[in-house]
C-alpha cells in the first residue's frame, strides 16, 4: 500500500538560506567568529558562538555509548593492571573506580547526561572480571564475581552516587542557563 507525504520535504531548495540545512558546526569554520550585521551594517559577534574561557567542562565530549565504552575499557584496563601489579586488590580496584566515575560524568555530553550513572556500575562489573577470584572454572569465576560485587558494594554505590551527583549538578546548571537564554 502506498503512503503519500502530507507535508513537502524540508530541504535547502525551498529555503532562502541554502546553508540552513547544514548543522551548525558545518556552517562556519573552526577558529572563525560568527558575526551578525546590525541595521547600520556594523558586525557584532553572535551571542553564544564561542564559550568563554573556563566556561563549561574541560575534556572530550562523549556520547552515551562512548561514555559507556570509555568507562568499561578504563575499568577493564585498571582491573588488569591491579591484578598484575598489586595481586588483585579489590580495595584498590574500588578506589580506582571513583576517578573513572568522575571522568565519565564530566566527559559525557549534555544530551546524554543521564546515561553516566547507568554505565558506571556496568563498567565496575566489566573490570571486576580480571580482579575477581576465579579458581575452579566457570562456577568459581561466577562465585568470585558475586563475592566481589558483594564485598565491594560500598565502592560501587559510592562511585554511582558521585556520578549521579555530578550529572544532576550539570543538568541543573544546563536548565538554568537555558531558562536565562
Describe this entry's structure for a reader.
The chain is mostly helical and 181 residues long. Helices cover 55% and strands 3% of the residues. It contains five helices and two strands; from the N terminus they run ββααααα. It has helices at residues 64-86, 90-107, 116-131, 137-151, 153-180, and strands spanning 35-37, 43-45. A two-stranded antiparallel sheet has the order 1-2. A hairpin with a 5-residue loop joins strand 1 and strand 2. Helix 1 runs parallel beside helix 3, helix 2 packs antiparallel against helix 3 and helix 3 (116-131) crosses helix 4. The radius of gyration is 24 Å and the shape is elongated. The two termini are 46 Å apart.
Offer a concise description of the structure:
By secondary structure, the protein is mostly helical. Helix content is 55%, strand content 3%.
Helical fraction: 55-70%
Estimate the strand proportion. Answer: under 5%
Largest sheet: 2 strands, antiparallel
Order of helices and strands: EEHHHHH
User: Helix count, per DSSP?
Assistant: 5
- Structural class, from secondary structure content? mainly alpha
Strand segment count: 2
| Mean pLDDT across all amino acids | 82
Low-confidence stretches: none
Distance between the termini: 46 Å
Strand order of the largest sheet: 1-2
CA-based gyration radius? 24 Å
Shape: elongated
Amino acid at each position: 500500500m502506498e503512503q503519500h507525504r502530507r507535508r513537502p520535504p524540508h530541504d535547502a531548495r525551498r529555503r532562502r538560506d541554502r546553508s540552513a540545512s547544514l548543522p551548525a558546526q558545518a556552517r562556519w569554520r573552526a577558529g572563525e567568529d560568527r558575526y551578525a550585521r546590525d541595521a547600520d551594517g556594523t558586525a557584532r559577534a553572535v551571542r553564544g558562538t564561542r564559550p568563554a574561557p573556563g566556561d563549561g567542562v574541560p575534556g572530550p565530549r562523549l556520547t552515551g555509548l562512548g561514555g559507556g565504552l570509555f568507562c568499561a575499557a578504563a575499568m577493564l584496563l585498571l582491573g588488569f593492571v591491579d591484578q598484575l601489579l598489586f595481586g588483585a586488590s579489590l580495595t584498590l580496584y574500588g578506589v580506582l573506580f571513583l576517578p573513572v566515575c568522575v571522568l565519565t560524568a564530566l566527559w559525557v555530553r549534555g544530551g546524554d547526561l543521564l546515561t553516566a550513572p547507568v554505565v558506571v556500575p556496568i563498567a565496575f562489573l566489566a573490570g571486576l572480571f580480571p580482579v575477581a577470584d576465579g579458581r575452579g572454572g566457570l562456577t568459581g569465576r561466577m562465585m568470585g564475581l558475586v563475592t566481589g560485587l558483594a564485598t565491594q558494594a560500598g565502592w560501587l554505590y559510592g562511585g554511582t552516587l558521585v556520578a549521579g551527583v555530578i550529572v544532576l549538578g550539570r543538568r541543573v546548571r544546563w536548565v538554568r542557563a537555558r531558562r536565562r537564554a
